[in-house]
């Protein structure tokens, strides 16, 4: 289940600092209009539709980066300009340039807590986990109520197996009334790992309500339903996940598991095989297919 990584790492860039009292420069205001969809996608609740994916790709395009560079040329001392272009570089996979822009934004405004969180996100992508943790900590030191940084740091902790620390960070974001589905989804994953499936289902359901077109929380909730023996609801969730995105091996393998439990070997084998076509290295599908073939 990868809503955490998908939303945070692909779309989690925060474009601008909290509104300032000063008037924005006209060109910077125009730039922020260009980037407004990125802000909605990364900071609030959604980033899951086909149109949003197309928008985000466009925001990492050479044309958009060139436009943002023109804005920086006109506003070389404005940290927000570098933060926005850094976000565009991040979306384009230009991580070295993204970090350089976030470095410049922070140099110009050492209290730019969003830029620290953005740089942390890129550091995660390039595998610099210690640097990412330091940046999330810096962001939270400046703004202890910044939910995005708690969620990002929680993901670091969860991926490192530090579930208690991760759980505390997701809880903190939720206590801050975040509308970011990642907090609920990732807390649900921890509940699930602890076999607390009723609590997991509740969290996945909240994530679904906040981001109804994401397949990942449906997969997560379906797994907890299945763990409770509720195969009907599990099957419904796995099918919904497939309808939302039929390119995820996990969804097909989950569907196959229900077919397998029902004794429908032919359909189970077909779904496991399709999962392996999508991801030949997906071990649950490989193991499931071997089980079904052994039963035949």
Automatic annotation (TrEMBL):
<feature type="repeat" description="TPR">
    <location>
        <begin position="113"/>
        <end position="146"/>
    </location>
</feature>
<dbReference type="Pfam" id="PF00515">
    <property type="entry name" value="TPR_1"/>
</dbReference>
<dbReference type="Pfam" id="PF13414">
    <property type="entry name" value="TPR_11"/>
</dbReference>
<protein>
    <submittedName>
        <fullName>Tetratricopeptide (TPR) repeat protein</fullName>
    </submittedName>
</protein>
<feature type="repeat" description="TPR">
    <location>
        <begin position="147"/>
        <end position="180"/>
    </location>
</feature>
<dbReference type="Pfam" id="PF13181">
    <property type="entry name" value="TPR_8"/>
</dbReference>
<feature type="repeat" description="TPR">
    <location>
        <begin position="181"/>
        <end position="214"/>
    </location>
</feature>
<feature type="repeat" description="TPR">
    <location>
        <begin position="215"/>
        <end position="248"/>
    </location>
</feature>
<dbReference type="InterPro" id="IPR013105">
    <property type="entry name" value="TPR_2"/>
</dbReference>
<keyword id="KW-0802">TPR repeat</keyword>
<dbReference type="InterPro" id="IPR011990">
    <property type="entry name" value="TPR-like_helical_dom_sf"/>
</dbReference>
<dbReference type="InterPro" id="IPR019734">
    <property type="entry name" value="TPR_rpt"/>
</dbReference>
<keyword id="KW-0677">Repeat</keyword>
<dbReference type="Pfam" id="PF07719">
    <property type="entry name" value="TPR_2"/>
</dbReference>
<dbReference type="InterPro" id="IPR050498">
    <property type="entry name" value="Ycf3"/>
</dbReference>
<feature type="repeat" description="TPR">
    <location>
        <begin position="79"/>
        <end position="112"/>
    </location>
</feature>
<feature type="repeat" description="TPR">
    <location>
        <begin position="249"/>
        <end position="282"/>
    </location>
</feature>
């Amino acid at each position: 289940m990868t809503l955490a990584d998908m939303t945070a790492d692909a779309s989690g860039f925060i474009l601008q600092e909290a509104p300032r009292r000063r008037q924005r420069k006209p060109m910077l205001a125009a730039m922020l209009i260009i980037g407004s969809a990125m802000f909605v996608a990364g900071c609030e609740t959604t980033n899951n539709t086909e149109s949003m994916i197309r928008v985000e790709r466009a925001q990492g395009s050479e044309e958009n980066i060139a436009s943002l560079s023109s804005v920086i040329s006109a506003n070389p001392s404005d940290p927000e300009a570098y933060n926005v272009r850094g976000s565009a570089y991040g979306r384009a996979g230009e991580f070295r340039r993204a970090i350089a822009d976030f470095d410049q934004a922070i140099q110009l405004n050492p209290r730019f807590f969003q830029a620290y969180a953005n740089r942390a996100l890129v550091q995660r992508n390039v595998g610099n986990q210690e640097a990412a943790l330091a940046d999330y900590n810096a962001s939270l030191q400046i703004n202890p109520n910044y939910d995005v940084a708690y969620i990002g740091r929680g993901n670091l902790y969860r991926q490192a197996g530090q579930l208690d620390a991760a759980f505390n960070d997701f809880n903190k974001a939720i206590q801050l009334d975040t509308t970011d589905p990642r907090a609920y989804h990732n807390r649900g994953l921890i509940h699930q790992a602890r076999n607390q499936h009723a609590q997991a289902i509740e969290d996945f359901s909240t994530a679904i309500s906040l981001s109804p077109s994401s397949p990942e929380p449906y997969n997560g909730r379906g797994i907890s339903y299945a763990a409770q023996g509720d195969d009907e609801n599990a099957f419904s969730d796995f099918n919904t996940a497939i309808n939302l995105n039929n390119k995820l091996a996990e969804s097909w393998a989950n569907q196959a598991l229900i077919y397998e439990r029902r004794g429908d070997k032919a359909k189970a084998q077909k779904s496991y095989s399709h999962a392996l076509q999508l991801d030949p290295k997906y071990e649950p599908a490989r193991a499931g297919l071997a089980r079904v073939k052994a039963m035949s």
